[in-house]
Amino acid sequence: MADTKVYQASTTAPVNIAVVKYWGKRDPKLNLPTNSSLSVTLSQSDLRTHTTAACSSTFGPEDTLLLNSSPQDVSGARTQACFRELRTLRSALEASNASLPKLASLPLRIVSENNFPTAAGLASSAAGFAALVRAIANLYELPSSPTELSRIARQGSGSACRSLFGGYVAWEMGANEDGSDSVAVEVAPASHWPTMRALILVVSAEKKGVSSTSGMQITVATSELSKHRFAVVVPKHMEAMKKAIQEKDFETFGKVTMVESNSFHATCLDTFPPIFYMNDVSKAAIRAVEDINTRAGKIIAAYTFDAGPNAVIYYEEENTDAVAGAVKGVLGELDGWEGKEVKVQDTKAIDA
Ligand code: DP6
């Protein structure tokens, strides 16, 4: 009798915010970066994508994906690459064990929900592709490690590979042409530095002007400064950042985070035509952080900005009042997503 059963599995994936930024592809097809990067994974009780993957002979004939109840196009090369890689792994399992149901050939139905505003520019593609890849891996009962899955998620969206882990995560750029060593690895678990906090300042929920994907390609094609960034600046920052995390040295962590963000936005300005992601409110947030640090006589807060105007400010728990007070002083009273304090996510709790 034909198998009409619906097979399904669910998972969640957190958002990560880079402190050493990925900005440039050396191979756009395999999504291989021009430099390594490093991020902090944020608590998924505050920011996460929940995804259910199902397959059945009663679905289809096409694969489908619903995000926050609206149908998404799955025909793009990135989503297709993730589906293809996961199906290949499942087919190999089925070939080695004849008693397994034949899931690899069945149409997929994916349903995803974010618990934060998708349009707010909060790295939703990172959590989105990480959750998609792990939900299908769970559905297919693949024995893959998070690092193996990161190789697949990377092809969906580069930053997604870092959302397979909690804590402090490096995406090592790798050297192989096939991308097999361009994967995410844990630098330290969240429990290593439990006092770390991030304040998310959503200064604008507007959709970004230039997408990361196209912005970074124009940077690689036109910016002289980016060559220096890839060859000299980022390798230095990766090393300093790993050491700062190992030693829980906030001053160095904060300094590198801010210099990194500035270096990334400088290469955006050096891109032709130039790309501006920060606005006047972003600049006011930078000044607020400078004020906090001047008053403290040392670095106790660090800002970082991705491809949009929203700020993430890292600090340690004991400095919560100083940070919140100064930010309020400059930007006014904040509520909800305008100013949210989040903790660092623990890897073990991600799929729980
Ligand atoms: C500025 O991962 O969104 O947030 O691989 O093209 O999907 P694609 O790009 P994406 O770029 C993220 C850029 C960044 C920096 C970072 O997260 O490292």
Automatic annotation (TrEMBL):
Species for this entry: Oidiodendron maius (strain Zn)
Keywords carried by this UniProt record: ATP-binding, Lipid biosynthesis, Lipid metabolism, Lyase, Nucleotide-binding, Steroid biosynthesis, Steroid metabolism, Sterol biosynthesis, Sterol metabolism
Catalytic activity, reaction form: (R)-5-diphosphomevalonate + ATP = isopentenyl diphosphate + ADP + phosphate + CO2
GO biological process terms, semicolon-separated: ergosterol biosynthetic process; isopentenyl diphosphate biosynthetic process, mevalonate pathway
GO cellular component entries: cytosol
Annotated ranges, domain Mvd1 C-terminal: 198-352
Protein EC: 4.1.1.33
Claim: ATP-binding is one of the keywords in the record: yes
EC primary class: lyase
Gene3D superfamilies, A to Z: 3.30.230.10, GHMP kinase, C-terminal domain
Name of the protein this chain belongs to: Diphosphomevalonate decarboxylase
InterPro entries: GHMP_kinase_C_sf (IPR036554), Mev_decarb (IPR005935), Mev_diP_decarb (IPR029765), MVD-like_N (IPR053859), Mvd1_C (IPR041431), Ribosomal_Su5_D2-typ_SF (IPR020568), Ribsml_uS5_D2-typ_fold_subgr (IPR014721)
GO terms, molecular function: ATP binding; diphosphomevalonate decarboxylase activity
